[in-house]
Design goal:
Distance between the termini: 112 Å
Strand content: 5-15%
CATH class of the largest domain: Mainly Alpha
Structural class: alpha+beta
Radius of gyration: 36 Å
Number of domains: 4
Helix content: 25-40%
Shape: elongated
CATH superfamily of the largest domain: Intergrase catalytic core
């Protein structure tokens, strides 16, 4: 081999040199052997110039990129989770500590079920709507027997026993299982527990909860409150529409139509009762509906009234079922002597009882009450005859 600069021949014994021994020219054709790096997963060490010591570092797994970080070139699909330990005077000591750092287990955290829930609630609550989280909170109340127990010691049998002891219906049992699953998933992510014990919880059919309807005397008391209580028309209308409370509160003015002088409502929103469900307005509440249509400042037919602390009216906004039950229905019911077991949903049972003695076929009545199999009933058996629905509604006493 000859030097590219001085052209002198480099002896065979020293041909692996990086530089020519005669003129000092760098021999670019000769690659310098790299120092062997540490194996994957064994960690590394780096110098911290601020604190002036060596730091041991290992990669302790990966996490996916957050949804709000775009990566158009698709170069990174996950982010490494680093674990470090500083304070070493020598690099060799930091490297020696890497394997010990990798083998360390997360510190055990002893938390009760209630403490885990208190950590989870502020983290998860902003991610769902208010009504949904209200269902989770109510479901968690049925696990009160396990509040003070270490979450790591709670078994599937303990959770199942709480569900079996719950006297509520099938929906509550489903919410209990869902809430427990969310808590255990959160616990695993934060190293509070090691495994999920909620996957095989049995919901079952649950007990059938039959709400007591509002009787004729109670409905009449509510009617007499119209003009005295701002929400009395809402409850009275609920008794003659057959809506679930949450469905009625979401109705907008543009969903109210008129046919041959009679008003009817097209639900429009897809629910358990199907989409574009038609509900005629009963003659007894037609004046109420027309007055609500004239309300200025809101698109909703049954909005929530907003007042300042001084009692000054400020406007309207959409009303949620929990507020309607707690601050609209219950105070009026207590004032009128209506029992505690009567709730806004009782008005739907009132409508159902009145519908039994009304004119019309069973299929027409099923459409008016809005059962969960309404869509199937409509497609297979019932004609979309608005006059029949209006006639059936008008025959309700």
């Amino acid at each position: 081999m000859n030097c590219p600069k001085c052209k002198r021949e480099i002896p065979e014994a020293i041909k692996d040199l990086t530089f020519c021994p005669f003129c000092g020219k760098k021999l670019t054709s000769v690659k310098r052997q790299r120092t062997k790096s540490r194996g994957n997963g064994t960690g590394c060490a780096y110098w911290d110039p601020v604190h002036r010591y060596w730091v041991a570092q290992i990669t302790n797994g990966y996490r996916p990129l957050p949804d709000d970080i775009s990566d158009p070139e698709n170069k990174r699909q996950r982010v490494p989770i680093k674990k470090t330990k500083g304070g070493f005077k020598r690099k060799e000591d930091a490297l020696a500590y890497c394997m010990e750092l990798k083998n360390q287990k997360p510190a055990e955290v002893q938390l009760t079920l209630k403490q885990v829930y208190d950590h989870w609630e502020p983290w998860y609550k902003p991610r769902v709507d208010k009504d949904t989280f209200g269902c989770y909170r109510a479901a968690f109340n049925h696990f009160a027997a396990l509040y003070d127990k270490d979450i790591r010691e709670i078994t599937a049998s303990d959770l199942q026993q709480c569900m079996d002891d719950c006297p509520r219906g099938h929906r509550t049992h489903e919410n209990m299982k869902c809430t427990a699953g969310l808590l255990w998933a959160y616990g695993i992510d934060n190293h509070y527990v090691e495994k999920d014990v909620t996957k095989n919880l049995f919901v079952g059919r649950g007990a059938s909860v039959q709400r007591e309807p509002l009787n004729d005397m109670e409905v009449e008391k509510i009617r007499k409150e119209i003009g005295k209580d701002i929400y009395a028309p809402y409850v009275y209308a609920l008794c003659y529409l057959g809506y679930r409370p949450g469905e009625m509160l979401e109705i907008k003015k543009d969903q109210v139509k008129e046919h041959n002088g009679s008003l009817y409502i097209i639900e429009g929103k897809k629910t358990d009762a199907g989409k574009d469900r038609i509900v005629p307005v009963h003659p007894k509440i037609e004046k109420i509906i027309r007055k609500q249509l004239e309300t200025v400042g809101t698109d909703y037919l049954f909005p929530m009234h907003i007042y300042s602390r001084k009692g000054e009216f400020k406007g309207y906004k959409v009303m949620h079922h929990n507020y309607f039950s707690k601050y609209a229905f219950r105070p009026m019911a207590d004032r009128l002597g209506i029992p505690k077991n009567k709730v806004p949903y009782s008005a739907r049972h009132t409508f159902s009882d009145k519908l039994k003695d009304a004119d019309g076929t069973d299929k027409t009545k099923a459409a008016l009450i809005g059962h969960s199999d309404y869509k199937f009933t409509q497609q297979k058996y019932q004609s979309d005859n608005l006059d029949d629905l209006i006639a059936a509604m008008g025959s309700i006493k």
